Every structure is written in structure tokens, then in C-alpha cells.
Amino acid sequence: MADPNAKQLDPSPTRQKLPGSYVPSDVLAAGAGAVGFAITAIWCSQLRDPAVTELYGSLVDKEWTYLVPATCFFTAFVLSLLTMVFERDTQRFRLAFFGAYIQILAASNDFLAYMDMAPIVRGSAYGSGVNLLRYVMWAFTTPAMIYLISLMSDSSTAQILLAIAADIVMIVSGLLGSVLQSVPLSAFCMLVSFAMFPYVMSMQWVMFQSAISATINCTNERSLRMLRIFTLSFWFSFPIIWLAGAAGLLSPATEEAMWTVSDFCGKVMFSSSLLYGNFLTLEQRKLITMRVIEESNRIQVIQELKDLIEQKDMFMNGMTHELRTPLNGIIGLTESLLIGSCGAMTSSVAKILRTIKGSGIRLLTFVNDMLDAASVRKGVLTIKQERVNLEHLVHDITEICVTLPRRGVALKCDIPAKFPHVRGDADRIIQMLHNLVGNACKFTHTGSITVGASLEGPDARVSVTDTGIGIPADKLLDIFDPFKQVDKKTTRKYGGTGLGLSLVKQLAMSHGSDINVESTLGHGSKFSFTLKVWDASDSQQVGRSNSTRTSSGSEESLPTLESEDVYKSHLVQEVATLKKERILMEEQMEEISAECARLQEANDLLEERLAGEQ
Questions:
Q1: Is the distance from CB of 211 to CB of 156 less than 8 angstroms?
Q2: Could you tell me the CA-to-CA distances from 29 to 32, 33, 78, 409, 447 in Å, in that order?
């Protein structure tokens, strides 16, 4: 039994709800960054060079270079805000929040540049002009981009902080190298910036690679590889643009346009569905991987269970077929001896022969039940649809079973005269009634056992009622399970295989009915099932189809599983059932061995008596 205090695996590991009162520290840091960007932008506005700013304003197509990207970034910002409102998953909320943070800063930079409010200063010997606000925006947005990528990886906190620090040093030193008028200092700062660039790129590559390695879905893996190429390609475009501008290969208008395009393409990823659909933290990927492994193990366990069940069925089929021939021979020979085929015999010898015959019949009944149960489970048991005289059949059953009840127990037949014929398989109906009557005889010590039938509309209800020991209310459903009896004491006291009622239920279902039981502990039980009354239309149906398959349909298979908890409980149940069946089969084999031993003893005793009489 499962421990109620045990932790259960969340069937949807990618879903972690964001508590209403909890604000992650990284979200607070991003909020502080937005405030810091605003303060820095106000301070930088005092450093603007009016002449250079005016020159850039006259050379650059501000609508396409600044206004269009600002509009796109602001639209993405609004979409991210809407996502934040409706998103309850912590990690995806983070993604939407940081996306909005990056987009609003980029939109602010482009809009201020469009309004000629972005501070542009005269650059060093390596450039004609520098947009200070763009560098400030990079210093506040690129660490957030690196942080988002790190969430998908297994990078340590120290590695993440080093990557972010290197990124900030790279941007700040690049800014100083662009604005300092001293050539040596400018060159030194640019060397530092270019030295940091490979490290920042390599850390992003490693973070993407970690996410790709933890991905088991080929589609997601391809998407992450595309994201990596897309992101790093545009990051590499920034130093190329700077070098081209410093070498005088680009005009101010072209340089500004290229900065805007690269900046837009590098940041649009954080508002794209491509990243949103593939964004999973490493912990979530590990949980998904664990689920896939457990699923593969589950399939393997189910296959092993099927193999074991098939091996068990093959063994039982082989064993039962091997037993039927000698058992029929034993029963036939004892009947021949009892009718005097070898001459007269004493009463003691006749008693021994009857004991041998009774034990043989018990074993043969068990063997037949085993074969029929296996056939029903595989769906290969054929049920004929024929016209059955139920009145004669019930009388025949009472005559056949007249010797089964204990002394003092009456076996009665209660069926109205000229009872209508029913539709079904006469042999299987006899088998059902024989099992029910035999079961009633086993547990009835006094009183009576009544086999009856009555009409219920278009159906005929056939019943077997006894005045036996009864069945506890909590066991009424269990008794129809294979190899299942009320308890072990009952099995030891009364014997039996536990297959009779299970087979009756399956045969009743194959006739389109079900087995019903009513029982009062200490007062007796009533088992009943229904059969269709024969009418004229049945003759045409029988003409078209002589037989039907059993209701079990096809080979027994394990059900499909949909959630983590369902398939685990099902596996536990299947394993427990298999173990229980194995134990019960061992007990039945011991009973068969004991019965065979009694047969051997009776046979030895018979040989001794016959030898003594000769």
C-alpha cells in the first residue's frame, strides 16, 4: 500500500505556479535595472554634444532607423505584459517579465533617438560619434539576456555572475574606448572590450549546449540549435559594425541603421514564440527526462508481465491437456469396473472405486475450468446461438447433480411447465448451472438447493438458490475474481480452485448477461443470470451466423496509461495480481499433487484388495 505521506511526482513538471505574494529576487533586480536605466539616461542627456547630435539627426532617416524599431519593441512589450497577466507558471512568467524589461528599454532608446533626445557625443579617433544611450541600454539589457539563457543550463551561480560581469566590462570598456580622446587609453579600453567578447560568447555557447544536451526531443533540440546560431550570429555582428565604422567604411546613416537592425534582431528572440515554446529550465528538463525513462521502464515492465502471463498460460494449457487424457482413462476404467466388466466385487472395493472416480472427476473439472478460463481470457471460446429447452435442461441438471449435496440437503427444481425456449449455448448453460449447483452443494450443510427459472419481460432469469453459509457483503464482488475465494480458511475447509464463479461470470457475459448475487451471511445465497427468450427473429439470425465470439473480444492486454499516478498504481496492481496468481497456482498445484497422491494410494489399496481376493 502506498505511503500517504510520500511525495508524489508532479505529472506536469513544467508547471510551477507563481505564488501571489512571492516576488523572485531576479525580478526585483530587473525592476531596479529599469529604474537605473532611466536615471542614467537622464544623467547622460547632460553630456550630449548639440553639434554632433544635429549632424546625426540630419543624416539619419529617423523614421525607419528609430521610430519603426521603437514601435515594434513597444508592441512586443505590450504582448509580454499581457502574457505576464495570464501566465501562472513561474519560469514562463520570468521569461515574459525579462522580455518586457528588454523590450521597453530598447523601445525607450529608439524613441529618444527619434525625438533627438538621445545623447550623442563626439567619439575618439576611432569614430565620428557615439550614442551614449545605446551603450547604457546594452549595459542594462544584455546581462538580462545572458541570465535568461543561463536558466536553461546547468551553469553555476559563479559562472553566471562571471559571464554577466564580463559582459558589463566589455560594454563599459567599449564605451570608454569609443569616447576617450586619448589614443593609448582608448586603445587599451578597446583591447579589454575585445578580450571580454570571446569569453562572453563562449559562456553563452556553453549555456546553450547544456540546454541542448538535456533535451531528448529532436524537434526541441533543432529549435535550440537554431536559437543558438541566431543569437550568437547577431552578437558577432556588433564588433564587426564597430570595426567597419572605426575604419571609415560606413557612413553615419549606414552605421546607425546597421546598429538598429542588429540590435532589433538580437533582442526580438526574447519575444518570439520560438524561445517561448522551447524555454525550459534544466530542472524541468531533468524531470521530463525522468518521466521518459520511467515511461520506457513502464513499457518494459508491461512487456515482461505480458511474457510472464503468456508463459503461465502456455504452461497451464500444456499441463491441463496432458492431464485430461489420463483422467478420462481413469474415470472410464473405474466406471467400467463399477458396472461389473471384470466380475462381481465386494462393497469395500466398490467404495474405493467410487472414491477414485470422484477424485478423477474433481481433477477433470478443474482441468476443464482452467482450459475454459484461458479460452475466455483470450477471446477464443465459441458461444453457439441455438434454441434451448430450458425446462428440460434444468431437470437434467438436477438429475446429474443429485449425488452432490450433503446428506439431508434437498436438491429441487423450480421451473414452470412449458417454459419458453431460450437462446444460447446449451453446453455452456449446463456448465454454468453445474458450477453454480456444485458451489452451492459445497457450502450448504442443511436445508435445500433450488434450481429455478422465471420470466422477466423478454428475458428468462435462471437462478440457483441455497440455504448455505452465505457470503459477507464486502466479499460479493471479490468472489468472481479468478482463483479468489472468501478467505483462506474457506479454501482449506471446503477446497476448490476459485475458478468456477469467475468462469460463470464470463460465460454469462458472453450470453449478453451478467451474474447477480444476493446473499445473507448464515442464511444462504442466490446466484442468477438472464437469457433471451427465443422468438421468430432468432431463427433468421442463427441462419446468418451460427456462433459469436465471447464478450472479452480479443487477447487480453494491459490498459493505456495517461498520467504518472495512474500508470504507477496500475503497474503495482498488475505486479501484485501476478504474484497472487502465482501463489494461488502453486497452491492449486499442491492440491493437484495431493489429489494425485490420494489416487495413487487408492489404486495401491485396490490392487492389494484384488490380489487378496485372488
A1: no
A2: 5, 6, 21, 89, 87
Q: Which three cell numbers stand for residue 123?
A: 567619439
Q: What 8-state DSSP symbol labels residue 421?
A: P
Q: Which is nearest to 320 in space by CA: 529, 499, 129?
A: 499
**Which pairing describes strands 547-549 and 382-384: parallel, antiparallel, or unpaired?**
antiparallel
Work out the end-to-end distance of the chain between its first and last CA atoms, rounded to an integer number of angstroms.
Answer: 64
How does strand 409-414 pair with strand 447-456? parallel
Angle subtended at Cα 156 by Cα 136 and Cα 32, rounded to the nearest 5 degrees: 30
Half-sphere exposure of 259 (CA within 13 A, CB side): 25
One-letter amino acid at 446 equals T
Helical pair 25-44 and 90-114, crossing angle rounded to 10 deg: 10
Specify whether the CB–CB gap between 221 and 278 falls below 8 A. Answer: no
Q: What is d(CA 410, CA 448) in angstroms, rounded to the nearest whole number?
A: 4
For every residue of 527-563, DSSP letters joined together read EEEEEEEP-HHHHHHHHH-SEEE-TT-SS--PPP--S
Are 444 and 524 in contact by the 8 Å Cβ rule? The answer is yes
| DSSP symbol at 41 | H
DSSP letter string, 174-201: HHHHHH-S-HHHHHHHHHHHHHHHHHHH
Any bridge partners for residue 131, and if so which? 120
Q: Where are the alpha helices (DSSP H) in 456-534?
A: 488-494, 500-510
Degrees (nearest 5) of the Cα angle 76, 279, 105?
A: 30
Q: How far apart are CA 478 and CA 562, in angstroms?
A: 27
Cell numbers placing 224: 535550440
Beta-bridge partner residues of 448? 410
Do 118 and 112 contact (CB within 8 A), yes or no?
yes
280-330, pLDDT tens digit by residue? 545 555 566 666 667 767 777 777 777 777 777 677 667 666 776 777 777
Number of Cβ within a 10 Å radius of residue 280 = 22
- Cβ–Cβ contacts within 10 Å for residue 522, how many? 9
DSSP of 63-129, one letter per residue? IIIIIHHHHHHHHHHHHHHHHHHH--BHHHHHHHHHHHHHHHHHHHHHHHHHTT-S-EE---TT-S-
Give tens-digit pLDDT for 201-230.
999 898 888 877 767 667 777 777 888 888
Residue 550: alpha-carbon gap to chain centroid: 29
User: 547 and 385 in contact (C-beta within 8 Å)?
Assistant: yes
Dihedral, CA of residue 449, residue 452, residue 456 and residue 458, to nearest 10: 140
pTM: 0.47
Q: Which residues, other chains included, contact 192 with Cβ-Cβ below 8 Å and sequence gap of 6+?
A: 169, 170, 173, 177
